[in-house]
Each structure stands twice: as C-alpha cells, then as structure tokens.
Amino acid sequence: MTEELMLAGCLKNNAASQQALYDRFSPRMLGVCYRFARNREDAEDMLQEAFIKVFTQIYQYRNEGALEGWIRKVVVHTCINILKKNRKFSESVDIMFALDTQIREENIFSIIQAKQVVECIRLLPLGYRTVLNLYAIEGYSHREIANMLDIEESTSRSQYTRAKAMLEDILIKKRIIIKPREKMEVAAAAR
Amino acid sequence: MDIRYNHTRDFEIRLKEKCDEFRMYPSKRVWYSIYNNIHPGRKWPSLVTSIILIATLMLVGYLNTSERITSTSKSTDQQLAGTSPKKVVSNNNPAGSILSLSSFISRPDMKLIPTLTDKPVTVNNSYFTYSERANWHDLFLNTIDQTKALFSPVRNESENAEKEPFVISNIAEGILPIGNGSQGENHEITEDLSRGLARKGSPDKLGLQFYASPSLVYRQLSNNVFSSGDARSATEEFGKDINNVIDHKPSIGIEAGAAMHYSLSKIIKVKAGLQFNYTQYSVQAFELSHPIATTLTLNDYNSNTSYTALRSSPYANRYGLYPVTLPNKTYQVSVPMGLELKLAGKEDLQWNIGATVQPTLVMAGSAHLLSSDNRNYISESSSINRWNLNAGFETFISYKINGLTWQLGPQFRYQFSPTYNKKYTLDEKLANYGLKMGVSRILE
Hints:
The complex is a heterodimer of chains A (about 190) and B (about 450). Chain A is mostly helical. Chain A has helices spanning about 5-10, 15-35, 40-55, 65-85, 90-100, 115-120, 125-135, 140-150, 155-175, 180-190; one strand spanning about 175-180. Chain A is globular and about 65 Å long. The termini of chain A are far apart. The model of chain A is unreliable at about 90-110 (pLDDT under 50). In chain B, about 20% of the residues lie in helices and about 45% in strands. In chain B, strands 8, 9, 10, 11, 12, 13, 14, 15, 16, 17, 18 and 19 form a twelve-stranded antiparallel β-sheet that branches. In chain B, strands 2-7 form a two-stranded antiparallel ribbon. In chain B, a hairpin with a 4-residue loop joins strand 10 and strand 11. The longest helix of chain B is centred in the first third of the chain and has 36 residues, at about 45-80. Chain B starts with a strand and ends with a strand. Strand 1 (about 175-180) of chain A pairs parallel with strand 1 of chain B.
C-alpha cells in the first residue's frame, strides 16, 4: 500500500489503512521512543499514546514534508510530554545522577551496531539523554528544546555539552569509537 | 563501527545515522490497545458473542418458565370456571377449596344452568345474577352432605326491589356465594386468587445474582523444558525448587460479575453468567542502572528441543541498584457455568455449595519472565496465553430478607492451563483464595 493510499484510508478512519501505516512506521518509532524511555515497556506505552494521537490528528498533516517526519514529530512530542509528567529536567538532579552512574563494561552486549549506539545513549542520565536526543538526533534547536522542556536555553546548551562529552567517553570505553591520537598510534604500530 | 572523533558536526551526523538505523518491533498488545482506543465500538467481538450466547440461554430458560406458568393458569382457569370476580365472598372456605367444589344447591326450584355468563338463575321468581364467568355446571357436579350458600339477589324484576337474601342450607366446600357477606364467616378473596392458584405448585425458578469476590492470588511454577542439556542452568546449579529461587508474593485480585440461576429442583440450581477477573501477584526484583543482555530459554516443538533467545533486561533477581516490585497481572473475562447444591437449611437461611467451570479470555496483562540463568527478569507480555480454563469452588450461607437473598462464603478458583504459552519453559498456574459476597433475586 502506498503512502497516499494509507493516508487516504486513515483520513476515513479505515482500520486496514491504519494498521498498514502502523506496521510500516512503528519499528523505527519504537526505536525513537526507546531512546527516551527508561525501559521497553515505557517505550511501548509512549508509542501507543503517540500513534493514538497520529490517527486522531492525521487530518492536521498538510503534505508539507514526508509523512514519516510528521509522525516522528508527534512521537517525539509525546515522549517529551510523558517524561515531563514524571520528572523535571533540572541540571542539579542530572549531575547527581551522573555521578552515580556506573557502567558495567562486561554486561553491554549487542549484535547490531545501531543498537550499541542506542544502548550507550540510554546509559546517560535522563536530562542529558533527552537534550542529546532532541538536538543531535532529532534536529531541534536549543531554543526549541528550552521551550519544550521548560528550561533555559543556556541550560540546554550546557546539558548538551556535558551529554556529548559523556557519550563520547562511553563510546570510547566500549571501543565503538577511536580517538584520533589513538588511531594514529595504532597505525604507527602496525607499520 | 568507526565514528571519527571530530569536533565538528560530523559526530552528530554519524550519531543520527546510526540511531535512524535502529529498529524495535513492538508487541501485539500495543496495536490492540491503539485499535481499541480509536475504534471503541468494535472491541472485544468474542466478548459480544459470548454475551449473545448467554443472553440466548437465559431467554430460553425464561420463556420456558413463562410458558409453564401460562399453561397452568389456563388449566386452572378452566377448573375454576370463572372464579375471578371482582369480589367473591366465601363462607368460611379457603381459597384453595375453589378447586374442590362438591355440592349442589338442593332447592328444587333452582334451575341448573350449565354455563352461565349473564344468565340469571331464578329462585322464587327472583332473578339472581352471579359472576359473569361462573360455571354452574361445574359448581353442581360434585356433592357433599352439608352445604351452605348465601346468595344475595342483585335485582328483582317483578318487584324492582331487592329481595331479602336467600340462604341455601347446604353449601359445597368450594362454592363461593356471591353476596354481601352478611352471614357466617366470610373471607374476601381478591381478584388475584386465580393467579395465585395458578402459581401454586410452580415456584419461581429463575433468579439473577450479582457478586464480587476479592481474593489473594498465588502462583505455582514448574519446569516445562524439553532437554536437560539446555535446561535452565541455574536450576541445576542451585539445585532447588524454582519456586524457592525467586521472591514472589501473592497480591489482591478480584472477581466480579452477574449470573442467572435456574432451579432444577428444590436443592439443585444450574447457573451461568459473566465474570470479570483481575489477577495479580508481585515479584521482588532489583532495577539495574542500565539494561543488560541476557537469554531466555524457549521450547521448539518442531524439533522437540529447547533453545535460548537473546533478550535485554533492566531487572535482576537478586542484586541491583535498588529494589523494585514487578507486578504480573492479567485482566480476564470468563463465563462461569455450573451448579449450586443446597446442603441444609430452610427457605430463609441455607447452606449451599457450588462449582463452576469458567472458560476465560485474557484481554490484557503484564508478565515478567525469568531468564535462562534465573538472574534477570524479562518483560514479555506477549507470552501470556489468550485463552484459559478455570474452575471455581465455593460454599456459602444465604439469607433471604425482603425479597433479596444475600450470600457470603469462601471461594477457591484454580487455573488449569498455564498462564504463558507453551514456548516458555516455565509453567505458571494461579490459584485464588477469596471471599465471595453476592445478592440475588428471583425474577417473577
């Protein structure tokens, strides 16, 4: 079923079209939710609520941009709203949490590289993780992030800087990324 | 993967690329929940079908009961031969004796009229009108030695005045003289006499009951694995019963519903109804700082062996960041069908026992499964069996007051089929111990 047919069917509240749209986009969208959520169950709850909004507000899609982009926007906003219900994004809380975070190198295991990266992102404290997801992956500006999370724009910038540094540190420890100096040393040793 | 460590936007670009490649496949319950939310009129078609079937059964039972009452009324009406006047005065005779009419009026000048609607009986040239439906033929069929009757003339055509009451010396046991009741002991019998007689010998059989039963839900685990080589390693390692390896506690559940019961006899009733169930028990675990990779042992029925599947788990069985309680719960609809037996007591106060078989539909639930090494919990609600079979056993005291029958007593409900599908290598059976409270009423 093409996107146009799916969209037309969803506008008529046709169940088959809705299921086709859900089957096409839910795997990727669940991946988006998983980066924001604490666990898989919470991610599925976010996905459920997001798709209910998608189907009930599908008439708001104006064919401006790809359908997937619009759905992704709805999903991200739904995730943020759910997170905001449960906790506030304060800098102090995240710092305290960040200090307590321990990474067990021997327990991180995944076959697919994308999953490796996502799991590393999920190691970050909630506030850092959310800002990093929104800025680096979803492409929102710091001003937009500040409005969504009810924080200052400067807080968003500082949280992102710290999040990026922490994530790089994790990725290096996991040997997922290699520092340039280290790479040069390895190349030199090989010669 | 080799993300170049770069202070420019390359890091974000590569990060986004990798994250966009990531896919996760949601469980089926997510789609069911979305569907039911956006199509509320179409949910639970199997439940609607069950309701229709039960309603059909109840209607058939009710109609059967109504037909018997109607046919009994007709035959009684024929016997009574029109004994439903507005007001009938009996001379010291109970209502039931209408059926045993056994006398005749001995006055020779009385005319015997086989059937009478408005036809008068002449006595001494006076006209007496009786109940429009009185059937004198029946009234005078049977005779007894001593009869009394009291007839009051309604009018006298010749003199256009009321005559004095005419007294018949002998009256049948069941003759109902029509008059002002000025002689003897008279008992007024109201117009619902025939209805009451029609009811006699046909007690109300159909009843409606509402009930609720809060209960404690216990579970029992047992192994269901094919080959010992792939068996749950921790079981062999610990060498203990699986129920002792984990920390689980019963929680409060509830069953509530409505049922119709039909009396086969004075001591046995059959019943069928619709019941909603909520089961829950708690598993004590520990949350980890991040999910870890683990494995889940599953059965392969094609090759009759077991294998391990990769999963991630944020919960540990014994050690972790902080304790957490994981609820394992189900929301069910069942159709209890069974019998009730009266053990002792009279109409108002009774002691009964009952048993039902309950085909059950599990509509939703959450499940946390134990990993292969028994060290972690994996959230996998899709493993819950959709259909199950339960049995209920109960004993209760019932007390009838003001037309309602109140019931109270213990109840035990047992689940026959495992909670999870047969791929999972642990079988779980639930048992509920509760207190059932109900109220029922006979439907007239």
